[in-house]
Amino acid sequence: KKQLFLFTVSLLFSGLQLTAQNPLVTHMYTADPTARVFNGKLYVFPSSDIVCEDGKGENGFCMPYYHAFSTEDLTTWEDHGKIIDQTEVPWGKKDGFGMWAPDCVEKDGVYYYYYPAPPTDKSAFRRVGVATANDPEGPYLLENDYIKGVDGIDPNVLIDDDGRAYLYYGGGKTLRVAELNADMKSIKGKPKVIETLPDGYKEGSFMFKKDGVYYFTFPHDQSGSEEIGYATGKNPMGPFEYQGIIMDRFKDGIWTNHHSIVEYKNQWFIFYHHHDISKNQHLRSMRADSLFFDNNGKILKKKATLR
Ligand code: FUB
């Protein structure tokens, strides 16, 4: 099922300053948007919030499946429908409602979709699974088991210029990184805790590389809601030096924010979420805004364009 949605954001695109409307789609709740450019299109892979019933879900979230979205003009969005459902996860609880923030990357023509889910073996709060496809829109084939040695949420993958791939993930107060093997479905050695970041709860990290610099970005909470901050380094596994805040915390009753940063058609964007349709922090909507760097590569702080 394909549907088209119009959205407008405050962005500088193809030389035009457009004033437009966030959130990006309104026919369903979407959170944790990971934006990626594949084959000239901008794809977004969010998680999905639904209303929790009968005590389902965790931490107030009920998140049973993933959709994929794409656009070519940042105005018209196509919903490619459900690409993975919790009931299909071979190693996952079938009533888990715990399909939290995902990521998708491409290597040698194969699309690798990384997602967290609650395992039936109860060995962890979340494990991270991999699904593969020949097209970003699917169909995806789910691996029979989760990635051994990885225990956490919010997987994010960087494929470096030399072809080596790194898996970042979080949970609790720490963010971790492990190098992926060439199969993209297993890790080399033990994950490493990323240090030299600010104290407090951290999750939802997103790594990108620009002009040879590794930008390690992450939601961070010390006082009841998440701001998005970042650190930079010269190595994908750190060390990183904390640089400051990209987006301030919201002060209107939502605890989470979760973002990704991508360049599309010579403009950088930050994708994130807010609860501005529902006013319920467990029913979020994905959004986007343009993002800029100064001449020294520092990210200019972004104020969310709330409507
Ligand atoms: O969406 C569920 C969780 O909330 C995500 O995994 C976190 O990053 C936060 O957005």
UniProtKB/TrEMBL annotation:
- GO biological-process terms attached to the record: xylan catabolic process
On the tree of life, the source organism's domain of life is Bacteria
Q: Which GO terms describe its molecular function?
A: carbohydrate binding; hydrolase activity, hydrolyzing O-glycosyl compounds
Q: Give start-end of the signal peptide.
A: 1-20
Q: Where is this site: Important for catalytic activity, responsible for pKa modulation of the active site Glu and correct orientation of both the proton donor and substrate?
A: D154
**Protein keywords:** Carbohydrate metabolism, Glycosidase, Hydrolase, Polysaccharide degradation, Signal, Xylan degradation
In which family does this protein belong, per the annotation? Belongs to the glycosyl hydrolase 43 family.
Q: Does the keyword Iron apply?
A: no
- List the protein's name: Carbohydrate binding module (Family 6)
